[in-house]
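Subject: Sanity check before I submit

Could someone independently write out the structure tokens for this chain? I want to compare against mine line by line before I put it in a report. The sequence has 443 residues.
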Amino acid sequence: MLYYPNVKMAATYFSLERFQMTNADYFSREFQKEFEEAAFRIAEKKQKQLEYSRSGQSPSGKLKKHLPTGGNFTGLFLWDTAFCVQWAKYAMERFPVTDSLDNFYDLQEEDGFICREYTSDGEAFWSKKHPVSFAPPLLSWAEVSLHENGLTGTERLRKVYPSLKKLHEFNRRNWRRPDGLYFGDALGCGMDDLPRFPVNARYDITDGIKLESSMVCRKGQEYFSLIRDNPLYQWNRQMGWVDMSSQMAFDALNLSRIAAALEDRKSEAAWLEEHRELGEIINEKCFDEKLGFYFDFYQGSVIPRFHAGGFWPMFAGIVPPERAEIVAAALADPAKFNRKVPFPALAADDPAFRPETEYWRGSVWPCTNYVALCGLRNIGREAAAKKYAQRYYAAYAELYRSTGTIWENISPEQYDCPKKVSAPDFCGWGALVPVTIAREFLQ
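---
Independent answer below. Compare away.
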């Protein structure tokens, strides 16, 4: 396994031209079709395993069939499901796409709460008293994506809109800070072990909402015992989270699109105003002019750690035109995100960068890479997005060809073999690369 702890050495080692020439067949229509079908077959295998493992096991009968979100977990993950919809929509006849989304609406509580994770019998894994239960609010995006691709009709939007609206309003009431930004949680945001504390500076974890045993369901107590003393899970409301704030802006934007499709002009205008207002707050508090990127906000200034949370303002459509070139330059920096395989979730020059041995501390993830690519397209950098997509796709294809499967995440430093902390047969959002990224950025 190749590993480059020295940033400059890794950056100079990689030759894009040589890599693309060597792996030119990965961009042929024949290979892309083969790779896509392999992803669908793996997903179907995981689907059957999921259904078999749950047969006769769910006395409540609360869950319908749902997309396999990867790994061996038989329950539901919210943001995983939203990303899985983005590849499964290209094979609606093979996968339970709308049923997967309906599970969350069926489990929604009267106050609007939908948990980020449910057990296989439909029990909320986490309590609404802690932001660990606050998932990236992406259900509205999934519904808009299906509708705008002609896969669902207006009647479905009319059916799900009240649930989506109630969820957004619950999140606004419970997770918004007095300064207008939103706070989250290391697990809740989906980037489990990504370090977001200030480096070499004092910070206070005592003001955070502490995760207690009573906030975890019965089936999660063993997991809770492993994380109970981790300071990451007391680091929440102290900070304005750039990703969760941008995701709430993005949710407002998607709700405006649903309202427009339903010809509810008043609601459409209100959601667009919320998107604009939240975008202004994020641009004021989370952008650093000198560093040219979006960051988390703590005690009156940004925390200058480059990570994938900063991709979301592009995706949410809140980056002003005059900042587009600056933000794109941060992604093009080989010392940070423009690695041999773009884009690591944590910048390569961060002191916690551990791409081979850790989970989110430098791994390249299909979900956040898709966000980055779409974000670049949103800010008018389509050509750059396609070039990055080619490199990422080719690395993923190389790993697929050498191992025969698709991986949860890959290393930004090498593509010769899988990294230590990554699950195989991950379709799951792993299928975003051979299906969605290939269709939307390579063709």
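---
OP: Matches mine. For the report I'm noting this point. DSSP finds 15 helices and six strands in the chain.
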